[in-house]
Amino acid sequence: GAGVSQSPSNKVTEKGKDVELRCDPISGHTALYWYRQSLGQGLEFLIYFQGNSAPDKSGLPSDRFSAERTGGSVSTLTIQRTQQEDSAVYLCASSLGVSTHSPLHFGNGTRLTVT
Amino acid sequence: QQPVQSPQAVILREGEDAVINCSSSKALYSVHWYRQKHGEAPVFLMILLKGGEQKGHEKISASFNEKKQQSSLYLTASQLSYSGTYFCGTPYSGAGSYQLTFGKGTKLSVIP
């Protein structure tokens, strides 16, 4: 079946502009996660959703970052007033549920470049 | 807290073996392992569960030592296709929250 789909695959934006990144998880997966990966670095946890709710937003780097999920499916990560340090690959993943036993299925990511 | 992986990088010739370690300062209930090839998304390899058996995937196996709060990934008779960055992830759940936190990764390069 279809995997996790992210769009756009690449986004170049000017400093100060807002951007929206979209994630379409695998059908039936109730858990959805956002990670950020800077060049050559590891995976930085941002936020997760169980259904439409995000119980813990503490991983978001600043109040310029927000995320929502509607209908238990598609999620949008919004970055307001982008800064150059926001440049990274933003990865979305989904799993059957929020459980230590559930593997994550990652999308191919959105490469964000802030100029 | 982020698990600690070692080594940071390793270069192998085809057919050689390698071990990647993942340690946590917190009690572990499970450990996830993923591999990311250059320019691609991370791909799930296996989950090690507390009290569970050693897992295997191709010629890649892993163990989970609860007392040491450590997991090790064993790559046997490495192939060129094993090249990539390996990440371990340790779940944390508590107070209504859940996170799967990854180590910084171990870059594995297999050369002919």
The overall average pLDDT of chain A, rounded, is 92
Overall morphology of chain A: globular
User: So what's the overall shape of chain B?
Assistant: globular
Number of helices of chain B: 0
Q: How far apart are the first and last residues' alpha carbons of chain A, in Å? A: 37 Å
Number of strands of chain B: 11
Give the terminus-to-terminus CA distance of chain B: 37 Å
Count helical runs of chain A.
0
Give a quick account of the main beta sheet of chain B: strands, pairing sense, barrel closure. Answer: 6 strands, mixed
Gyration radius of chain B, in Å? 14 Å
Proportion of residues in β-strands of chain A: over 45%
Residues in helices of chain A, as a percent range: under 10%
Could you explain the architecture of this structure?
- The complex is a heterodimer of chains A (115) and B (112).
- Chain A is mostly beta strands and 115 residues long.
- Chain A has no helices and 10 strands.
- Helix content of chain A is 0%, strand content 45%.
- In chain A, strand 4 (31-37) and strand 5 form a beta hairpin.
- The mean pLDDT of chain A is 92.
- Helices cover 0% and strands 59% of the residues of chain B.
- In chain B, the strands form 2 sheets. In chain B, strands 2, 4, 5, 9, 10 and 11 form a 6-stranded mixed β-sheet that branches. A 5-stranded antiparallel β-sheet of chain B has the order 1-3-8-7-6, with no helix packed on it.
- The model of chain B has no long low-confidence stretch (mean pLDDT 88).
- Classes of the chains: A mainly beta (115), B mainly beta (112).
- The A-B interface holds A 4, 33, 35, 41-43, 45, 48, 50, 55-56, 58-59, 91, 98, 100-101, 103-109 and B 2, 29-30, 32, 34, 40-44, 47, 49, 87, 89, 91, 93, 96-105.
Question: How would you describe this structure in keywords?
Answer:
heterodimer; A: 115 residues; mainly beta; six-stranded mixed β-sheet; four-stranded antiparallel β-sheet; 10 strands; 0% helix; 45% strand; B: mainly beta; 11 strands
